[in-house]
Amino acid sequence: MIARIWQGRTRPGMGKPYLSYLEQTGLKEYRATEGFNDVLVLTREIGEETEYVLITLWENMDAVRRFAGPEPERAVYYPEDDRYFPERERTPYVRHYDVLVPSATKSRTA
């Protein structure tokens, strides 16, 4: 299993509106991609900005490529992302990790 991690900070006051937009774009596309397993959406308030960290779990790197394309290390952005993120906060790259120990919740329900 592969964990793909992206993070960014919204413009001031755009943290909550971004979550609705994220549901319509990235989260929807993740769930429609073969090999997608799960997502964690983490947030924290930093002054007037909201930091988002998305951890997605995938069966393998082939599944990640089905979502991200031929350069899976590049972040995927959508047309309206500029509205929510200043250019300086649009991280161009993501990180990938091998998951050595899956969630205890998942293993109990499997």
How does this structure look, described?
- The model has no long low-confidence stretch (mean pLDDT 91).
- The two termini are 15 Å apart.
- Helix 1 runs parallel beside helix 2 (26-32).
- The protein has 110 residues and is of the alpha+beta class.
- It has helices spanning 15-24, 26-32, 61-68, 81-84, 104-109, and strands at 2-9, 36-46, 49-58, 95-98.
- It has 5 helices and 4 strands.
- The chain is globular.
- A 4-stranded antiparallel sheet has the order 2-3-1-4.
What topology emerges from the helices and strands here?
Elements: E1 2-9, H1 15-24, H2 26-32, E2 36-46, E3 49-58, H3 61-68, H4 81-84, E4 95-98, H5 104-109
Antiparallel strand pairs: 1-3, 1-4, 2-3
By CATH, the architecture is named 2-Layer Sandwich
Helix content: 25-40%
- Count of domains: 1
Main sheet strand line-up: 2-3-1-4
Strand content: 25-35%
Secondary-structure element string: EHHEEHHEH
Q: What is the count of β-strands?
A: 4
Shape: globular
Task: Characterize the largest beta sheet: strand count, sense, and whether it forms a barrel.
Answer: 4 strands, antiparallel
Task: Name the features.
single chain; 110 residues; alpha+beta; Alpha-Beta Plaits; four-stranded antiparallel sheet; 30% strand
